[in-house]
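User: Could you write out the 3D structure of this protein bound to magnesium ion? I've included everything you need below.
Assistant: Certainly. Input first, then the structure.
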Amino acid sequence: MVELYHVNKDYGRGNHALVDVNMAIEKGDFVFLTGASGAGKTTLLRLLFREEIATSGKILVDGMNVSTLSAFRVPTLRRRLGIVFQDFKLLSRRTVFENVAMVMEVTGVPRRQQRVKTYTVLEMLGLNHRVRSYPLELSGGEQQRVAIARALVNEPALLLADEPTGNLDPNLSWDIMTLFKTINIRGTTVLVATHDKDLITRMGKKVLTLDCGRLITH
Ligand SMILES: Nc1ncnc2c1ncn2[C@@H]1O[C@H](COP(=O)(O)OP(=O)(O)O)[C@@H](O)[C@H]1O
Ligand SMILES: [Mg+2]
């Protein structure tokens, strides 16, 4: 699902965010990416959805060569991905329903099907009663579940989550992780960047660790 070969990312002025990273994530895997703040976790995720471009090296995501992908094919790549950020990135003037359904506007899914898919994913996340609410009327945990619903509605091959529990209390964090496990069992490959060591230990999943931009082996 994901392969990196000798990947380097420099932000200039000798800032080596990633240094000769080699790794592979198989289809169906559930993997944590960890490391201290500044270790390069976010950079690595941003390379995978082509928000950043590697300085050198080769990256394959779901069979696509991300480094050489032409700009007009980037949406094709992103349609295969679900992305969850720490700060949710919900639109405050749109309802929960609209925040989720709008992802499909660009993908050309018919209106009727958009409604069905949106209701299905909101129900799976226990948000049925929040469909008409606005993000600011929701708790932090609910907002993050809306963000996850939005990431899942296109049934992504790969879910990328960057510190998805960073703003949540431990109980809610655990709920979100349980949800990711379910999603993973249903066939989505999951990659979660987090510095929360307790969470990783409790989950007992594969772990990749970055240290100053280098992947360290255990
Ligand atoms: N857009 C950017 N411009 C310049 N430097 C950056 C940028 N993004 C990240 N960095 C630097 O790259 C390194 C890795 O950052 P990041 O990937 O955000 O790490 P993490 O997510 O593990 O905290 C840090 O030294 C950070 O300051
Ligand atoms: Mg980060």
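The domain at 2-216 is CATH 3.40.50.300 (Rossmann fold).
User: Perfect, thank you.
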